[in-house]
Each structure stands twice: as C-alpha cells, then as structure tokens.
Amino acid sequence: METEVLLYEGKAKKLFKKPDSKELRVEYLDQATALNGQKKDAIQGKGALNNQITSILFQLLAQEGIQSHFIKIISKHEQLIEMVDMIPLEVVVRNVAAGSFSKRLGIEEGTTLPQPIVEFYYKDDALDDPFINDDHIAYLGLATEAERQQLRTLALTVNRALQHIFAQIDIRLIDFKIEIGKTAQGHLLLADEISPDTCRLWDMATNNHLDKDIYRRDLGDILPVYQEVYNRLEKEFSSCI
Ligand code: ADP
Ligand code: UDP
C-alpha cells in the first residue's frame, strides 16, 4: 500500500495525499479558530458536523449542475476530494449586511441588500486575508480577467442554489465564503468547504445565529447550533442524495 503523506495542516482541516494520486483525503478537525487563529479552541464533534454538512451541500449543488472537488464521504470526519491548484482568493457573497461589511460601511447588520454583493479577499494569513479589488487581483496575477468574471458568476450561481437549499430548511443565507481551484485541465472547480464555519446562517423564525458568529462573538456553544443545521439538512435531503 502506498504511504500517505500530510500535505497541509490548516486551521480546520488536514489534507493527506498518496504519491501518485490526484485525490486527497481530508480530515475535518475538532478545532475552532477566529481572528486569524488568535482565538482557538478544541471542540469535540465539530469536525464531523462540518464534514457531514459540507458533504450534503456539495452533493446538492452537484444536483444543480455545480461541480465541486467532492468525491465521497469516507467517515464522519473524513472525505475524499479531487486535488486542485487553489486560487488564493476568498470569494464572499453577501445577501444581507453583516460582519466586516457592516463595520466597514456603517450599514446596520441585518439590512437586506437589493442585490447580492461579491467581494474578493487575498487568502494570505500573514497579511490577514485583505480585501482586494480587481486591479489588485490583476497586479498580483491571482486570476486573469476572464477567470475573475468566471469566479464572480460561479459565486452568484452557488449563492442562488444555496439560498434555495437553506430556505427549504427555514434558514436565511446572510453571506458566505467559497474557495475555488483549477483542475489539471485548467477548469475552475468549487473546492474547500461550505459549512456554518464559512456561511452566516440565520434561523428564519427567530433570526438566531446558526453559524460561527456564536464562537466569534462568544454567544454560547457552537456544537448544538451546528448539530441543528446538520439535523435539518439530513431530515430534508437525506433521501435525495
Ligand atoms: P486554512 O488554510 O485557512 O487554515 P483549512 O484548515 O480549511 O484552512 O485548510 C484547508 C486548506 O486546503 C485550505 O488552504 C484550502 O485552500 C485547501 N484546499 C481546499 N480544497 C482543496 C483541494 N481540492 N485541493 C487542494 N487544496 C485544497
Ligand atoms: N468567512 C470565512 N473565512 C474567512 C473570512 C470570512 O469563511 O476567513 C466567511 C464568514 O463566515 C462570513 C463571510 O465569509 O460568512 C463574510 O465574512 P466577513 O467578511 O463579514 O468577516 P468577519 O465578520 O467574519 O470578519
């Protein structure tokens, strides 16, 4: 059997690779971080929930024609993915003002935006993932003009699909972040994860946070909240994936 090597250990996941394989095994970690890793805690069971939530969402997106790196779930806290060449951009889509958008622009959190807003951040921990514009992306050579347009279109397509999925389980999609990679053939592919760590999810009836803001803002335990998101997804969609 070929030996696996640890390719990368991040704040939320570990990636393992066999020498001649184009697939990666991902382990979702029982760890929560915020403020670029300055706040960090072990949270038993979080990895399994994010792995299972991401797996359901990537399968539902595939049914809507949105392909991702997801191949299959292999255990509660592990999945198999296609390895891609990551574009070092975090693409954020916002439907409702919240978080850094509210702070930066002075817009009250919870204000519905007339149309979704797409933002790009340069994924670089040392620089604290700065907000960047189109000219910065071109200057840094992070994506061509055509690729940037494709990223924007993909992000908006994912937004529509996710809004629809979450609406069916009485959740409002406030905003989210995605990451995208390039396949060996040069195609853009949705990668990384989509979970309560990377989305702001508000309960439709109560506006309660069902996401990582619970951790970022010290509002309580995230585990029951992530479990609630998983339970709703599982109940609604387990029969069709
Ligand atoms: P971070 O790097 O921000 O600490 P994670 O702990 O989630 O985040 O680490 C996962 C890493 O794997 C991220 O850097 C992400 O860009 C990268 N990644 C996600 N999907 C793929 C993929 N399909 N191929 C290669 N790298 C990936
Ligand atoms: N986000 C993320 N990873 C990051 C930064 C943001 O997944 O490194 C997600 C976050 O969960 C939210 C959206 O992107 O759903 C917008 O986050 P924002 O810019 O408001 O940042 P924050 O308020 O967390 O600083």
TrEMBL record:
- Domain of life where this protein originates: Bacteria
- GO terms (BP aspect): 'de novo' IMP biosynthetic process; cobalamin biosynthetic process
Specify whether Ligase is a keyword of the entry: yes
Q: Which UniProt keywords apply?
A: ATP-binding, Ligase, Nucleotide-binding, Purine biosynthesis
Tell me the GO molecular function terms: ATP binding; phosphoribosylaminoimidazolesuccinocarboxamide synthase activity
> Do you know which Gene3D superfamilies this protein is assigned to?
ATP-grasp fold, B domain, Phosphorylase Kinase, domain 1
Output the PROSITE patterns linked to this UniProt entry: SAICAR_SYNTHETASE_1 (PS01057), SAICAR_SYNTHETASE_2 (PS01058)
Known pathway: Purine metabolism; IMP biosynthesis via de novo pathway; 5-amino-1-(5-phospho-D-ribosyl)imidazole-4-carboxamide from 5-amino-1-(5-phospho-D-ribosyl)imidazole-4-carboxylate: step 1/2
Q: What's the Enzyme Commission number for this chain? A: 6.3.2.6
Q: Name one Pfam family in it.
A: SAICAR_synt
Catalysis performed (reactions):
5-amino-1-(5-phospho-D-ribosyl)imidazole-4-carboxylate + L-aspartate + ATP = (2S)-2-[5-amino-1-(5-phospho-beta-D-ribosyl)imidazole-4-carboxamido]succinate + ADP + phosphate + 2 H(+)
InterPro entries linked: SAICAR_synt/ADE2_N (IPR028923), SAICAR_synt_PurC (IPR033934), SAICAR_synth (IPR001636), SAICAR_synthetase (IPR050089), SAICAR_synthetase_CS (IPR018236)
Transmembrane portions of the chain: none
Tell me where in this chain the SAICAR synthetase/ADE2 N-terminal domain is found.
6-232
The record's comment on protein family reads: Belongs to the SAICAR synthetase family.
* PANTHER family with a match to the protein in the record: MULTIFUNCTIONAL PROTEIN ADE2, SI:DKEY-6E2.2
> What is the protein name for this chain?
Phosphoribosylaminoimidazole-succinocarboxamide synthase
Tell me the organism's taxonomic lineage.
Bacteria, Bacillati, Bacillota, Bacilli, Lactobacillales
